[in-house]
Amino acid sequence: MTESVQTASRQEQKERTRQAILASALELTRTEGFAQISLRQVARHAGIVPTAFYRHFDSMDELGLALVEQSFSTLRRMIREAQRDPKVFDNIIDAAADVLVEAVKHSKAHFAFVARERVGGSAAVRRAIQHELDLFVSELAVVLARLPNIENWATEDVQMVSRLFVRNMVSNAEEVVEMPDGRPDLEEKIKEGARRQMRLIVIGFRDWKS
Amino acid sequence: MTESVQTASRQEQKERTRQAILASALELTRTEGFAQISLRQVARHAGIVPTAFYRHFDSMDELGLALVEQSFSTLRRMIREAQRDPKVFDNIIDAAADVLVEAVKHSKAHFAFVARERVGGSAAVRRAIQHELDLFVSELAVVLARLPNIENWATEDVQMVSRLFVRNMVSNAEEVVEMPDGRPDLEEKIKEGARRQMRLIVIGFRDWKS
DNA sequence: AGATTGAGTGAACGTGCGTACACTCAAAGT
DNA sequence: ACTTTGAGTGTACGCACGTTCACTCAATCT
User: Fold this and answer.
1) With an 8 Å Cβ cutoff, is A40 touching chain B?
2) Mind listing the pLDDT tens digit for each residue in A161-174?
3) More confident residue, A48 or B146
């Protein structure tokens, strides 16, 4: 119970090393894909000896799952913050496009990791990402179900539209990830494209089954 | 010029081995992702010694590019055949959904390869796939531009819609790839989802900018 | 003050890898 | 009938890998 300032030191140091490992893996994943980076590479980049890796993760696969968790918690935080902004109610489409581009730009490495490992990763990592995305679809469906044109749709139709939105969000995120830095024109182009796609879908809403 | 029956023998044998290498790589890629299968694995699976691999490809990267080419030529042939079918004019949406599911089912391994390596592969393979997909978007845009509601749209709007279609085609293909065999119910569900998404977009067309 | 814990070390292992090199031996060319 | 060609062989190399094991030594606990 006498833990206060000094007690933190050991735990803190361990946590710092853990974060260094995560950051190193993310950095190395920028160019290579998680499945082809090695435990030794990660350890080297994090400034520790290969065996020390095992003090933090049982295997590279567990490190991958930790990265998935970290990536999605980042994204969730950003979306929660954006929802507080009142202007999203006025123009949900423009707001969504802005949030998307900003979020991806802010944590590019995380998004690049998710985009790539969603289809290319190990089975475990792939499943974890798919699960998170499925959660997203369901959450978004709840939000959509409250919109004027949609409130009396069949549940499965709302789910479908939600999938359509998330799917396009993922695709647009991929584009932003591959966007070179310092090109605000390209960024604006992607935003504009995203806005148009969403508008198109929303227009489809209005006349759905009419 | 005296090449007739016997002359083919050497060439034929070489071609047969080449196809064995391609097929082996495709087979191994089912579970592992192209970047993490080794030259030696491919050679072993194809029934040759590792060094013999070099008689056919300079590197694994070139093998990957050959697989991209093979995959897309398969897809192109299928779409060309489907376009001859007169019923695609009556109901282009249902026809597209059918073609998609059938094509992916017919050469699942090729589609799985493309879907995975599109984002997870080496830079060269990724670029090759992106190039092929860009071609597809342009080709589809030409077809779309002839449709009644679209004929006087701005070119960039048509391109955007075309991207939207191809993007969703890719996503749906991913779903079919991950679909377990012998589940016609799941297959029909994916088809139905694809139909709905396309209908939604088409409805958006009608009222675009009105 | 002394004992315990546990993050990080360093050497060593077996394995699979890509690639080099010199080779065989039928088919194809002359 | 001979030479040439070239797909496929077999050995051998150096290297990076994941994992093992016995270790150090400062922070923490008693």
Assistant:
1) no
2) 888 888 888 988 98
3) A48
CB < 8 Å to A174, chain B: 119
Domains along chain A? 1-57 (1.10.10.60), 60-207 (1.10.357.10)
Q: Which residues neighbour strand C (beta carbon < 7 Å)?
A: A 10, 13-14, 17, 48-52, 55-56; B 2-3, 6-11, 38-41, 50-51, 59-60
| A119·B174 Cβ contact <8 A | yes
pLDDT digits (tens, 9 = 90+) for A84-128: 887 776 777 888 888 888 889 899 999 999 999 998 889 999 999
> Which of B119, B157, B170, B195 to mutate against chain A (most A CBs within 10 Å)?
B119
Alpha carbon distance B51, B49 (integer Å):
6
The region that residue A126 occupies, defined by phi over 0 for left and psi between -120 and 50 for alpha, beta otherwise, is alpha
Q: Is A66 on the interface with B (CB under 8 A)?
A: no
For strand D, give the nucleotides within 7 A of a protein CB.
6-12, 16-22, 27-29
Residue environment code for A141-161, b if the CB has 16+ CB neighbours within 10 A, otherwise e: beebbeeeebeebeeebbbbb
Q: What is the CA radius of gyration of chain B?
A: 20
In this structure, chain A runs to a length of 210
Tell me how long chain B is: 210
Instruction: Decide which of A101 and A49 is more confident.
Output: A49
Q: Report yes or no: A116 at the B interface, CB cutoff 8 Å.
A: yes
CB-nearest to B171 from A33, A36, A167 is A167
> CB contact, 8 Å: A196 with chain B?
yes
Beta-carbon contacts of A28 under 8 Å, excluding residues fewer than 6 positions away, are A37, A41, A42, A45
The reported pLDDT for the residue numbered B14 is 97
DSSP letter (8 states) at residue A210: -
Express each pLDDT in B18-44 by its tens digit: 999 999 999 999 989 999 999 999 999
Instruction: Give the CA count within 13 Å in the CB-facing half-sphere of B160.
Output: 25
pLDDT of residue A198: 83
